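Lab notebook, page 48
Experiment: co-folding of the full assembly
Goal: obtain a model of how the components sit together before planning crosslinking
Operator: M.T.
Materials (sequences as entered):
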Amino acid sequence: MELFGSSGVRGVANEDLTPEFLIRVATAVGTVWGAEGAAVARDTRTTGRTFADAAASGLASAGIDVHRLGIVPTPGVQAYAAREGIPGLVITASHNPPQYNGMKVIGEDGIELPVADLERIESVLRTERFARTQWNETGEQRRVEGARRAYVEELLDSVDRARIAEANPTVAIDPGHGAGSLTSPDFFRRLGCRVLTLNAQPDGTFPGRDPEPVPENLGELARLVRTSDADLGIAHDGDADRAIFFDERGEYVEGDATLAALAAAELDAGDTVVSAVTASRRLSEAAAAANATLALTPVGSTNIVTAIRDLASEGASVPIAGEGNGGIFFPDYRLARDGAYIGARFLELVTERPTSAVLGAFDGYHNVRRAIEYGEGGEREAIMAAIEERATRADAELDTTDGYRLDYDDGWVLARPSGTEPLVRVYAEARERDRAEELAAGMKRTLESAGVQV
Ligand code: MG
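Observation: model returned without errors.
Model output:
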């Protein structure tokens, strides 16, 4: 899939990604769908309305009636699609910087489109076999009010409202000027929390911070939590399908620790938790303690969704899944990542104990990440051959789901080629920082031994 990659269509607006291109993509999507109606929504980016207009035009030209939802978080669009039984397009670049925009494609079941469907869309686009309708069958467009309100109502019905309201926690929320600005503060207030907000005005210039919820961008939130009586800090990305947390002391909570804590609370004996090959030992320990199974997939949310569907069709119970980047699935709620829902489920955990105490059991690991560039020609093959050679010799458990992951008694290291750049990504984790560094360095030496200039 050249066009959709692992995260939908993305690019710098009006440079890599133009409105005319989006019309063509949306016409191809409409050709494959052949639906009567479809939703179009967007996040807060400055180019959002123009790009949503383009997407709506493409769908209408394929004969589809367009429901214009306005600014709605991606999970809110997924809720609308599932409720109405129609597919949808979301104009968003998720966590990418302000100048980017893009498109996510949602099926009529409210779930991200599977790879096979995306490939069909790409094929229509490539061969230009657009099914444009006659002049008198062009789709209508209508504005739909209340999609955000209905989404928040659904969220309120899906969590333990009484438990949270009784605890009356104080929550500091930083939606980063994204689509969650219009839903998350309202949701947490109505859950019975005292809400402090930061960067909660929808603004496509993102004046307070960049959309990516990484610690470098969240210093203000850390300060707000530290200098207030907040029990928890919550940050979203631009389309609010992810949640990142700060404990009551204003300390950043690693996504791996969040996932492990939620999994420990959620898993029963015999359950399966799905994660990517980058999964932390924290998660495998939480699964083992619950007598549950950890199933690993290649990196990327599409792969996780596919694995959950496959396991569910085989009768497995998968109550939780996700990656350590703040994107967590609760499939019994919806097969979608939902930043507000993740926030509320985490809040349930911290109603009785401070956030830092809940997470204490999942502390004490060190993670090291390296990106090693390689040149043109045969270097990629040489690198992968060297890694394979090392992997087969190592006194470790080997997993080849995506690259090579070596699990030792006291840590693990993974080397996997990037799908989009001339890079090999190396991940290592151990209880001792020195050991994590040593594991990553060992992998780097392997690359050097393959004659690669790194
Ligand atoms: Mg996102």
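Interpretation: The longest strand covers residues 366-373.
Next step: discuss with group before ordering constructs.
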